[in-house]
Amino acid sequence: xxxxxxxxxLSSIVDDYQLFYVDLWGVxxxxxxxxxxxxxxxxxxxxxxxxFILLTNAxxxxxxxxxxxxxxxxxxxxxxxxxxxxxxxxNYLKKNFLNETFYHIGPPRDFDLFNDFEKxxxxxxxxxxYLLCTGLFDDHExxxxxxxxxxxxxxEKKMICTNPDLIVDRGNKREFCAGSVxxxxxxxxxxxxxxxxxxxEVYNQSIDNKNKKILSIGDNLNTxxxxxxxxxxxxxxxxxxxxKNEIEEKGIEKVSKSYEAICNxxxxxxxx
Length: 272
Description:
Elements lengths: L2 E2 L14 E4 L13 H12 L3 E6 L5 H11 L3 H4 L2 E3 H12 L5 E4 L24 E4 L10 H8 L6 E4 L5 E4 L2 E4 L1 H10 L3 E4 L5 H7 L7 E5 L2 H10 L3 E5 L5 H7 L1 H7 L6 E3 L5
Helix pairs in contact: 4-7, 5-6, 9-10
């Protein structure tokens, strides 16, 4: 049974945990502005000297997301806790693919990810060693069929996907993410290596999490909550995020069951 914390707040369970993984998009901000209640909660965690990581499936390095959060008005003491799926992927690529050529699938705003090895970027998908998927091309951001045609003759190449999310809400607009492109590739028979929630690598790279009681907070059942389930962490789902309409219509028990996910707690918004 999922316990509702809308009345008691996060403060009612905070002493049960030593480490908090907190999702950014859908929990702390909506892509346009910060959520004040969430910022207060993070400040309170800081006051109580609780470890927390702002763990996000952003396909860019840590410094890039920190700069974005600074523009939104987030204080340095909070944004210094950021760790991204892009950072985890970057560490892997530097170690394993540093001298191999890649074809980038994603918008120019993600170019930060491969600054250190930009010379290896190929403009020809058929002549690269691997595919690096960070999102969708700006001129094909709503058209998944385009990617099916693109991949048709290149399924033997490995794809590195730096954001397993399928969709995101930017303000009031719903957009596809890199995970949707990777899913097209996988369904066609291609092999994908994912970095980000729900896969363990991003959690383990972000902080020493051994032998700690952990709560994972997020709005996405496929990534935030499934990641917690896979790693035996407790979880708190934020219901006003990506699953808002489903949860309002069916309730959290039915919705979480349909995603084969288990939520310990639920809040409409992250509040202390």
